[in-house]
Protein backbone atom coordinates (compact mmCIF):
# COMPACT_ATOMS: atom_id res chain seq x y z
CA UNK A 1 0.00 0.00 0.00
CA UNK A 2 1.20 3.50 -0.82
CA UNK A 3 2.54 5.34 2.24
CA UNK A 4 0.49 8.47 1.55
CA UNK A 5 -2.71 6.42 1.25
CA UNK A 6 -1.94 4.51 4.45
CA UNK A 7 -1.23 7.80 6.25
CA UNK A 8 -4.53 9.27 5.01
CA UNK A 9 -6.51 6.22 6.14
CA UNK A 10 -4.91 6.34 9.61
CA UNK A 11 -5.55 10.10 9.73
CA UNK A 12 -9.25 9.79 8.86
CA UNK A 13 -9.72 6.96 11.37
CA UNK A 14 -8.10 9.22 13.97
CA UNK A 15 -10.55 11.99 13.05
CA UNK A 16 -13.46 9.55 13.49
CA UNK A 17 -12.25 8.62 16.98
CA UNK A 18 -11.86 12.26 17.99
CA UNK A 19 -15.30 13.19 16.65
CA UNK A 20 -16.97 10.74 19.03
CA UNK A 21 -14.52 10.97 21.94
CA UNK A 22 -16.72 13.22 24.12
CA UNK A 23 -20.03 11.46 23.40
CA UNK A 24 -19.62 8.60 25.93
CA UNK A 25 -18.72 11.02 28.76
CA UNK A 26 -21.53 13.46 27.91
CA UNK A 27 -23.97 10.53 27.97
CA UNK A 28 -22.54 9.20 31.25
CA UNK A 29 -22.99 12.63 32.87
CA UNK A 30 -26.53 12.92 31.48
CA UNK A 31 -27.43 9.43 32.70
CA UNK A 32 -26.15 10.14 36.23
CA UNK A 33 -27.26 13.80 36.18
CA UNK A 34 -23.83 14.55 37.60
CA UNK A 35 -20.28 15.25 36.47
CA UNK A 36 -18.66 14.65 39.86
CA UNK A 37 -16.53 11.82 38.49
CA UNK A 38 -14.52 14.28 36.41
CA UNK A 39 -11.74 16.47 37.76
CA UNK A 40 -12.46 20.09 36.84
CA UNK A 41 -8.69 20.74 36.81
CA UNK A 42 -8.33 17.97 34.21
CA UNK A 43 -11.03 19.54 32.02
CA UNK A 44 -9.66 23.09 32.30
CA UNK A 45 -6.09 22.00 31.42
CA UNK A 46 -7.45 19.91 28.54
CA UNK A 47 -9.39 22.95 27.30
CA UNK A 48 -6.25 25.11 27.53
CA UNK A 49 -4.35 22.53 25.48
CA UNK A 50 -7.06 22.54 22.81
CA UNK A 51 -7.09 26.36 22.72
CA UNK A 52 -3.32 26.44 22.09
CA UNK A 53 -3.81 23.75 19.45
CA UNK A 54 -6.54 25.83 17.78
CA UNK A 55 -4.37 28.97 17.79
CA UNK A 56 -1.45 27.03 16.28
CA UNK A 57 -3.63 25.57 13.50
CA UNK A 58 -5.08 29.00 12.68
CA UNK A 59 -1.76 30.85 12.65
CA UNK A 60 -0.09 28.12 10.59
CA UNK A 61 -2.99 28.18 8.13
CA UNK A 62 -3.23 24.38 8.10
CA UNK A 63 -5.82 22.24 6.32
CA UNK A 64 -9.50 23.00 6.80
CA UNK A 65 -10.08 19.53 8.29
CA UNK A 66 -7.45 20.18 10.97
CA UNK A 67 -9.03 23.55 11.76
CA UNK A 68 -12.52 22.04 12.02
CA UNK A 69 -11.25 19.33 14.37
CA UNK A 70 -9.31 21.84 16.52
CA UNK A 71 -12.40 24.05 16.78
CA UNK A 72 -14.56 21.00 17.55
CA UNK A 73 -12.21 19.95 20.37
CA UNK A 74 -12.45 23.40 21.94
CA UNK A 75 -16.23 23.66 21.65
CA UNK A 76 -16.72 20.11 22.94
CA UNK A 77 -14.47 20.89 25.95
CA UNK A 78 -16.53 23.97 26.71
CA UNK A 79 -19.73 21.94 26.41
CA UNK A 80 -18.41 19.27 28.78
CA UNK A 81 -17.32 21.87 31.34
CA UNK A 82 -20.74 23.56 31.03
CA UNK A 83 -22.47 20.22 31.69
CA UNK A 84 -20.37 19.49 34.78
CA UNK A 85 -20.96 22.97 36.27
CA UNK A 86 -24.68 22.85 35.40
CA UNK A 87 -25.25 19.56 37.24
CA UNK A 88 -23.19 20.83 40.18
CA UNK A 89 -25.44 23.91 40.40
CA UNK A 90 -28.53 21.71 40.23
CA UNK A 91 -27.19 19.53 43.02
CA UNK A 92 -26.46 22.54 45.24
CA UNK A 93 -29.94 23.91 44.57
CA UNK A 94 -31.64 20.62 45.50
CA UNK A 95 -29.58 20.24 48.68
CA UNK A 96 -30.37 23.81 49.73
CA UNK A 97 -34.09 23.31 49.07
CA UNK A 98 -34.10 20.09 51.11
CA UNK A 99 -32.29 21.82 53.96
CA UNK A 100 -34.70 24.76 53.92
CA UNK A 101 -37.67 22.37 53.91
CA UNK A 102 -36.29 20.51 56.93
CA UNK A 103 -35.82 23.78 58.81
CA UNK A 104 -39.40 24.78 58.02
CA UNK A 105 -40.64 21.44 59.33
CA UNK A 106 -38.69 21.76 62.57
CA UNK A 107 -39.89 25.33 63.21
CA UNK A 108 -43.46 24.34 62.38
CA UNK A 109 -43.36 21.48 64.89
CA UNK A 110 -41.86 23.67 67.63
CA UNK A 111 -43.96 26.82 67.19
CA UNK A 112 -47.11 25.19 65.81
CA UNK A 113 -47.55 28.34 63.72
CA UNK A 114 -47.43 28.84 59.96
CA UNK A 115 -43.92 29.30 58.57
CA UNK A 116 -44.80 31.89 55.97
CA UNK A 117 -41.50 33.74 56.24
CA UNK A 118 -39.47 30.59 55.68
CA UNK A 119 -41.65 29.58 52.73
CA UNK A 120 -41.07 33.03 51.22
CA UNK A 121 -37.33 32.70 51.82
CA UNK A 122 -37.26 29.28 50.17
CA UNK A 123 -39.21 30.55 47.15
CA UNK A 124 -36.85 33.51 46.80
CA UNK A 125 -33.86 31.20 47.00
CA UNK A 126 -35.26 28.89 44.30
CA UNK A 127 -36.01 31.89 42.07
CA UNK A 128 -32.50 33.27 42.61
CA UNK A 129 -30.89 29.92 41.76
CA UNK A 130 -32.99 29.54 38.62
CA UNK A 131 -32.06 33.04 37.44
CA UNK A 132 -28.40 32.30 38.07
CA UNK A 133 -28.63 29.02 36.13
CA UNK A 134 -30.35 30.74 33.20
CA UNK A 135 -27.70 33.46 33.12
CA UNK A 136 -24.95 30.82 33.22
CA UNK A 137 -26.57 28.91 30.33
CA UNK A 138 -26.89 32.09 28.24
CA UNK A 139 -23.26 33.12 28.87
CA UNK A 140 -22.05 29.58 28.04
CA UNK A 141 -24.00 29.57 24.77
CA UNK A 142 -22.73 33.03 23.81
CA UNK A 143 -19.14 32.02 24.63
CA UNK A 144 -19.35 29.00 22.32
CA UNK A 145 -20.84 31.12 19.52
CA UNK A 146 -18.19 33.84 20.02
CA UNK A 147 -15.31 31.34 19.93
CA UNK A 148 -16.74 29.75 16.76
CA UNK A 149 -17.24 33.05 14.92
CA UNK A 150 -13.87 34.57 15.91
CA UNK A 151 -11.99 31.36 15.07
CA UNK A 152 -13.64 30.98 11.65
CA UNK A 153 -13.05 34.63 10.77
CA UNK A 154 -9.41 34.56 11.88
CA UNK A 155 -8.72 31.30 10.07
CA UNK A 156 -10.30 32.63 6.87
CA UNK A 157 -8.26 35.86 7.12
CA UNK A 158 -4.94 34.07 7.70
CA UNK A 159 -5.64 31.40 5.06
CA UNK A 160 -6.95 33.91 2.50
CA UNK A 161 -3.98 36.25 2.92
CA UNK A 162 -1.56 33.32 2.63
CA UNK A 163 0.32 34.66 5.63
CA UNK A 164 0.64 31.27 7.23
CA UNK A 165 4.13 29.77 7.46
CA UNK A 166 6.02 33.07 7.90
CA UNK A 167 5.89 32.75 11.69
CA UNK A 168 6.92 29.12 12.05
CA UNK A 169 8.17 29.66 15.59
CA UNK A 170 4.73 30.70 16.82
CA UNK A 171 2.78 27.59 15.71
CA UNK A 172 5.64 25.48 17.10
CA UNK A 173 5.40 27.32 20.42
CA UNK A 174 1.66 26.71 20.48
CA UNK A 175 2.24 23.07 19.60
CA UNK A 176 4.67 22.53 22.47
CA UNK A 177 2.44 24.42 24.92
CA UNK A 178 -0.47 22.24 23.80
CA UNK A 179 1.64 19.08 24.21
CA UNK A 180 2.66 19.99 27.77
CA UNK A 181 -0.95 20.76 28.73
CA UNK A 182 -2.30 17.58 27.11
CA UNK A 183 0.21 15.42 28.97
CA UNK A 184 -0.29 17.24 32.29
CA UNK A 185 -4.08 17.29 32.06
CA UNK A 186 -4.44 13.61 33.02
CA UNK A 187 -2.55 13.96 36.32
CA UNK A 188 -5.38 15.70 38.29
CA UNK A 189 -7.84 13.02 37.11
CA UNK A 190 -5.48 10.20 38.11
CA UNK A 191 -5.02 11.80 41.55
CA UNK A 192 -8.79 12.25 41.96
CA UNK A 193 -9.41 8.59 41.09
CA UNK A 194 -6.70 7.51 43.53
CA UNK A 195 -8.08 9.63 46.38
CA UNK A 196 -11.66 8.41 45.81
CA UNK A 197 -10.49 4.84 45.14
CA UNK A 198 -13.06 4.90 42.33
CA UNK A 199 -13.58 5.75 38.67
CA UNK A 200 -17.34 6.13 39.10
CA UNK A 201 -18.74 8.81 36.80
CA UNK A 202 -15.93 8.41 34.25
CA UNK A 203 -16.65 6.99 30.82
CA UNK A 204 -14.27 4.23 29.78
CA UNK A 205 -15.35 4.90 26.19
CA UNK A 206 -14.04 8.48 26.26
CA UNK A 207 -10.52 7.41 27.22
CA UNK A 208 -10.62 4.44 24.82
CA UNK A 209 -11.50 6.76 21.92
CA UNK A 210 -8.77 9.18 23.02
CA UNK A 211 -6.16 6.40 23.05
CA UNK A 212 -7.23 5.12 19.63
CA UNK A 213 -7.28 8.67 18.24
CA UNK A 214 -3.77 9.43 19.53
CA UNK A 215 -2.35 6.11 18.28
CA UNK A 216 -3.82 6.53 14.80
CA UNK A 217 -2.76 10.20 14.65
CA UNK A 218 0.85 9.34 15.54
CA UNK A 219 0.79 6.43 13.10
CA UNK A 220 -0.41 8.72 10.30
CA UNK A 221 2.60 11.01 10.87
CA UNK A 222 5.15 8.20 10.67
CA UNK A 223 3.42 6.61 7.67
CA UNK A 224 3.59 9.94 5.83
CA UNK A 225 7.34 10.36 6.19
CA UNK A 226 10.18 9.42 8.51
CA UNK A 227 12.57 12.14 7.34
CA UNK A 228 14.24 14.00 10.25
CA UNK A 229 12.94 17.41 9.11
CA UNK A 230 9.34 16.18 8.88
CA UNK A 231 9.51 14.42 12.26
CA UNK A 232 11.06 17.51 13.87
CA UNK A 233 8.29 19.72 12.46
CA UNK A 234 5.66 17.41 13.98
CA UNK A 235 7.61 16.53 17.14
CA UNK A 236 5.41 18.54 19.51
CA UNK A 237 2.26 16.78 18.25
CA UNK A 238 3.98 13.37 18.52
CA UNK A 239 5.10 14.09 22.08
CA UNK A 240 1.63 15.36 23.02
CA UNK A 241 -0.06 12.25 21.63
CA UNK A 242 2.40 9.67 22.96
CA UNK A 243 2.73 11.41 26.32
CA UNK A 244 -0.99 11.29 27.00
CA UNK A 245 -1.03 7.57 26.10
CA UNK A 246 1.12 6.78 29.15
CA UNK A 247 -1.32 8.50 31.52
CA UNK A 248 -4.40 7.16 29.71
CA UNK A 249 -3.10 3.61 30.26
CA UNK A 250 -2.71 4.45 33.97
CA UNK A 251 -6.38 5.48 34.00
CA UNK A 252 -7.24 2.18 32.25
CA UNK A 253 -5.46 0.34 35.07
CA UNK A 254 -7.47 2.35 37.60
CA UNK A 255 -10.71 1.40 35.81
CA UNK A 256 -9.98 -2.32 36.10
CA UNK A 257 -8.40 -2.13 39.57
CA UNK A 258 -11.18 -0.12 41.25
CA UNK A 259 -13.94 -1.98 39.34
CA UNK A 260 -12.56 -5.24 40.74
CA UNK A 261 -12.69 -3.85 44.29
CA UNK A 262 -16.36 -2.80 44.04
CA UNK A 263 -18.74 -4.56 46.46
CA UNK A 264 -20.29 -7.62 44.87
CA UNK A 265 -17.54 -8.01 42.29
Record the SSE blueprint:
Layout: H1 3-20, H2 23-32, H3 40-60, H4 64-111, H5 116-160, H6 169-196, H7 204-224, H8 228-233, H9 235-260
How is this structure best summarized?
The chain is an all-alpha fold and 265 residues long.
Name the structural class. mainly alpha
Query: Would you tell me the overall average pLDDT?
Result: 79
The outline comes out as globular
Estimate what percentage of residues fall within beta strands. Answer: under 5%
Total beta-strand segments: 0
First-residue to last-residue Cα separation: 46 Å
Indicate the radius of gyration in whole angstroms: 23 Å
* Major β-sheet annotation: none
Order of helices and strands: HHHHHHHHH
Uncertain stretches: 163-167
Q: Number of helix segments?
A: 9
- Percent of residues in helical segments? over 70%
Describe this structure in words.
It is a single chain. The protein has 265 residues and is mainly alpha-helical. Helix content is 84%, strand content 0%. Helix 6 (169-196) packs parallel to helix 9 (235-260). Residues 163-167 have low confidence and may be disordered.
Amino acid sequence: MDHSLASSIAGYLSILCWLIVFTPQLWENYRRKSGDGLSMTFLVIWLAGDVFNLIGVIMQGLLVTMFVLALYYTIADMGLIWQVIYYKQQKIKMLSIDQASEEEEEISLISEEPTTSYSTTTSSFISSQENRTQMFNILSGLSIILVTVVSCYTYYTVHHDSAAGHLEWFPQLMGWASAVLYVGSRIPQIVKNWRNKSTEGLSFGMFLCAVMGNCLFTLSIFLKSTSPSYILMNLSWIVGSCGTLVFDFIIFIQFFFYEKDKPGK
